[in-house]
Amino acid sequence: MGFDPVSEAKRIENEIIAWRRDFHMYPELKYEEERTSRIVEEHLREWGYSIRRVGTGIIADIGEGEKTIALRADMDALPVQEENDVPYKSRIPGKMHACGHDAHTAMLLGAARIIAEHKDELRGRVRLIFQPAEEGGNGAVKMIEGGALEGVDAIFGFHVWHELPSGIIGIRDGPFLAGAGFFEAKIQGKGGHGASPHETIDPIPIAAETVLALQTIVSRNVNPIETGVVSVTAIHGGTTFNVIPEEVEMKGTFRYYRPEIGELIKRRMAEIIDGIARTHGAGAEFSINDLVPPTINDPKMADFARGVAEKYGLRHGDVAMSMGAEDFAYYLQKVPGAFLTLGIYNEEKGIVYPHHHPKFDVDEDVLYLGTAMEVALAFEFLR
Ligand SMILES: [Zn+2]
Ligand SMILES: [Zn+2]
């Protein structure tokens, strides 16, 4: 490419920050990103992108050629009351960009502008995906259903990252964020008098046995080298001291990195819940559901990203796995790519609060580096 993406991004840094502050002041919750997506769409149209709408989501294409690279940002905020005292504090009570999606949208908008300014140098297509509802809404699934990945050869996404020092681009091979699911179970016994247990099928000891047995999935079934979590987080049954209840309800969550471990956890959960109930002559109704698959970076794409960062002098490093989950995982199930992070932690500036905290903030001075990396990824991939 005949230009330096880093200096181009630096040149429009003030604009990127201004966009981020504007989005920050007017946060919108999942699937309500009307204002944000309108602003994004207006800019993209002005810069010559062809636009497809998927609800409040946007698929925007520029360039032509055999290969297509997709870059994704998420736009939704959280139901959090902001506690920062900054000029760009959220103007909407009870809503806040506490995860940094305002920064993601602004960085990708910056990249969109630079890519459009150099579209004559593009040797393929760049697709920008501005998605709604990352926070528990699986907006990625809606975008994929809306055709976001059609013809796409590779995809990259960025998340600003509290656990990395400001300005470092975090790149990890393979499993990065956890897969998550939840379960609900009802153990159906036979109620009766607390003094006559022999005439009942008491669901309480059955539930107790089940809770303990579920813990053996991680301690006895999962290979100790691997990671998994099973947590029973709710248990309800009974009303008073002398009545054995009819049933006990339980709820909980499970986490894992490798899909095989997720399958193992789900299979053992079903066997344990069903098996223990049956051993005692009780019934068990239960459902075990996936929430988000693990985010697994393609090692080749992660390597490609490292090479790009290297070439343009962008500081990068490894990033630790996290038990958090991301719906970017759905794109990575279909297309090779990598979910990258941009460090925004800066003690000197007091930017030390974790994602989803009412005092979460990002070090705005490094956002142009995310934009530069996005532009560089696009042009390098399409060489
Ligand atoms: Zn979040
Ligand atoms: Zn997020």
UniProtKB/TrEMBL annotation:
Keywords, in A-Z order: Hydrolase, Manganese, Metal-binding
Organism whose genome encodes this protein: Thermococcus siculi
Annotated protein name in UniProt: Peptidase M20
Location of the Peptidase M20 dimerisation domain: 179-275
Cofactor(s) in the UniProt record: Mn(2+)
Pfam families xrefs: M20_dimer, Peptidase_M20
Binding site residues for Mn(2+): C99, H101, E135, H159, H356
InterPro entries, per the entry: Amidohydrolase, Bact_exopeptidase_dim_dom, Peptidase_M20, Peptidase_M20_dimer
Keyword field contains Manganese: yes
PANTHER family: METALLOPEPTIDASE, PUTATIVE (AFU_ORTHOLOGUE AFUA_6G09600)-RELATED, PEPTIDASE M20 FAMILY MEMBER
Top-level lineage group: Archaea
Entry's cofactor comment: The Mn(2+) ion enhances activity.
GO molecular function, one term: metal ion binding
